[in-house]
Amino acid sequence: MGERLYVGIDLGTYQSTIASSAGASHTIETVVGRPKDPIARNFLGRDVLFGNDALKNKLACNIYRPMAAGVAQDDDANLAAAKAFVSHLLETVDPEEFDEVFGVICSPSHVSFTDKSNLVATLRGQVNAIMVVTEPFATAFGIEEIASSIVVDIGAGTTDIARIYGTFPTEEDQITLQEAGDWLDEALMELIRKKYTGAQVTKDMVRRWKEEVSYVGGDTREAIVELSVEGKKQVVDIGDLVQEACESIIPKIGNGIKQIVAGADPEYQPVLRNNVIISGGGSLIEGLAARVADEISDIGDVNVWCVEEPIDKVATGALALAQQMPDEMFTSIN
Length: 334
Hints:
Layout: E1 4-10, E2 15-20, E3 25-29, E4 32-35, H1 38-44, E5 49-50, H2 51-56, E6 61-64, H3 76-91, E7 100-107, H4 113-123, E8 129-134, H5 135-142, E9 149-154, E10 159-164, E11 174-177, H6 181-195, E12 199-200, H7 203-213, E13 224-229, E14 232-237, H8 239-247, H9 250-262, H10 269-273, E15 276-279, H11 288-295, E16 304-306, H12 313-324, E17 331-332
Parallel strand pairs: 1-7, 7-8, 9-15, 15-16
Antiparallel strand pairs: 1-2, 2-3, 4-5, 4-6, 8-17, 9-10, 10-11, 12-13, 13-14
């Protein structure tokens, strides 16, 4: 084609999204599976599996979730898995049809030099040049809310909160919380095991239940699930436990928002308080915006709202940014 392809990439702990200037967009579970032995290799007919395909065959595979906390884990096996996964993700948008590929990749607000180097390493040889931006800024740019806003991106590995005011946020404008979707899953799993002694549950099971019924505020709701207790099927109601687990993250987010507001220019604090935007997979918790608004109401008038279709907002925002930034903003990684 003799053209340049722009891509926006959101590499998440549990799922990743890519959006391209050619109009393609894909979300894939961030999972890599490698056959455990020659028998598994012959059975599966492949050396590596990705996403749901890997999960369906997880008993025959060594499973890697290489993007813990949104960055590649710093060991050889996970780095190799991350590179293979990114290659697979890029293949979904047909980069070979273009002369060059420029990408904007998103990361949590606070990552180390090693983490950034690992992110770059996963893309080396796959794209010509990249720019790394934070997830809250990519979201704000994509929904055209970069004037004066606070973006709370609740992912699986981290919750990132940033002041956005018309330019790239600085280190001082952002905080990263470890309390996010992953943390919430652990809390819910512990509550289930405590209430139903001997319950056999996995993190994947708990995460699926949470995604189906998560909510905060209001009356306790019913959420009937099947679990095993010492191998025996049991049908139980975990609605109260889902609510309790989801509620436990509200003070963490509220305190983070208050910290970001307090650190802002006092003339702009009223504007920021009235445009708090929640994004990321965690924003799908029903009733979240209202509960967060109630949690931070002691700092004055507030307005809190959730973005629509949050799963792809980081990637589409990154793509919009890639298409508008001059070439000198990108770093060549050939």
